[in-house]
Write a structure and sequence with these properties.
Helix content: 55-70%
Structural class: mainly alpha
Number of helices: 5
Strand order of the largest sheet: 1-3-2
Number of domains: 2
Strand content: 5-15%
Largest sheet: 3 strands, antiparallel
Length: 163
């Protein structure tokens, strides 16, 4: 279990390091490895990565989630931008409840952050399997429909990663 946590911390840390640096240069790579080895020791005994699955299917799900997240990020930025520059106020804010099938705390956290990082939605609270989302233009307050519109696109990939 500790080995799995260390491998995941190393992999994710190095991936984030390389993404933030935007380079595969030898100095950047060596520094990234050193930094991620040091920081991964903090996660080994914490149990943070206990629910993460290390399978080829999970890696594909991670890549799919990143693609879906980036697409939703662009779409929601365009939507919010159009609301800002349009003279007519086109908002219908509400806090809606959505349900998640994710059982792990880390999976729910990833889902909540995926929702919050896309403009127009903000995760206000998580209680068991229910997330309370502030939605800039709530087209529905029905739990099932709001879940389908807000959560489903992220959840199907995160479920493979976190169960």
């Amino acid at each position: 279990m500790k080995f799995k946590a260390a491998v995941i911390a190393l992999f994710l840390g190095l991936l984030i390091w390389l993404g933030l640096n935007g380079s595969l240069g030898r100095e950047v790579l060596i520094t990234g490895i050193i930094v991620t080895v040091i920081t991964s020791f903090f996660y080994i005994g914490s149990g943070v990565f206990r629910d993460v699955h290390l399978t080829p299917r999970a890696l594909i799900a991670l890549i799919a989630w990143i693609i879906v997240f980036l697409i939703e990020l662009v779409k929601s930025n365009i939507d919010v931008m159009s609301r800002v520059v349009t003279p007519k106020v086109r908002i219908n804010p509400a806090i809606v409840q959505v349900k998640t099938k994710l059982r792990s705390r880390l999976g729910r956290l990833a889902l909540a952050n995926s929702i919050t990082l896309t403009p127009g939605t903000l995760t206000a609270d998580i209680v068991d399997d229910t997330l309370f989302i502030h939605w800039i233009d709530a087209s529905t307050v029905d739990i099932d429909e709001a879940t389908r519109k807000i959560v489903e696109k992220f959840e199907k990939h995160l479920e493979v990663l976190f169960g």
